[in-house]
Amino acid sequence: MAVRLETQDAIGHIILDRPPANSYDREFMEELDAAIEAARSDDGIKAIVVRSASEKFFSAGADVSVFAKSDFDTQNAFVVCANEAMGKFESTPKVVVAAINGHCLGGGLEMALCCDFRIAAEGTYRLGLPEVTLGLLPGTGGTQRLPRLIGRQKALDFMLRGTAMGPQDALAAGIVDEVVPAPQLLDKALERLRAYTSGPTFAIGRIKKAVVLGAGMRLDEGLKLERQLLIELFKSEDAKEGVTAFVEKRKPTYKGK
């Protein structure tokens, strides 16, 4: 399989494994979609890390040969499939971290942008959205998510030039949240995720949804979403336990539901 899900200590590992560069095709995206759905529906998984089995590539993005040999309808269906699959990272009420260990280009970076946090390894690899060099645009969320993350002007220049940068420059630009020594990458990603795998995980998931999904809405729409999610929490066992424990002056015991 090009994408597989493994579970370790309440963390779901979505592993990209399509040599040599984790370039994705329709089958890859369908497997990614299935992995996200499985991680989302598994109550034993409290947080998710997306990582690569390759030592050199996180993902080089879409397999360009797919576009070269396919007709318009096939190309359109492929883009829709990729957008729907990647977007599920954002709508999943579990924190998702991308552990970037190598070249992260085009749709590969767009995949990472769908994650809540991005931790990158030190190295000489590149991150970028070079679609303009093919006469295309970043069509799996890049034109929308990157400006929201780093600001319109920086993102626009980045995409218009089709340039790529190293991990330290990506950190300075705000594309990644942390750069760590390569041997420590997975440990650092898991360390961050463990903070979200215990305690009131039901509330953690709803905070993630409110912030991530609300960021793309008008303020009134975002506030409506916030209220809806708060109502969900009022009905949860964890909220009842948290409030009761506070009143009884004891430590709460959360169940994640």
Plain-language structure description:
This protein has 257 residues and is an alpha/beta fold. It has helices at residues 26-41, 64-68, 72-91, 107-113, 142-150, 152-161, 167-173, 185-194, 201-214, 219-234, 237-247, and strands at residues 3-8, 11-16, 47-52, 57-59, 95-100, 103-105, 117-121, 127-128, 164-165, 178-180. The longest helix is centred in the first third of the chain and has 20 residues, at 72-91. The relative contact order is 0.12.
Set down the secondary structure blueprint.
Layout: E1 3-8, E2 11-16, H1 26-41, E3 47-52, E4 57-59, H2 64-68, H3 72-91, E5 95-100, E6 103-105, H4 107-113, E7 117-121, E8 127-128, H5 142-150, H6 152-161, E9 164-165, H7 167-173, E10 178-180, H8 185-194, H9 201-214, H10 219-234, H11 237-247
Parallel strand pairs: 2-3, 3-5, 4-6, 5-7, 6-8, 7-10
Antiparallel strand pairs: 1-2, 8-9
Short description, anyone?
It is built from eleven helices and ten strands. With 257 residues, the protein is of the alpha/beta class.
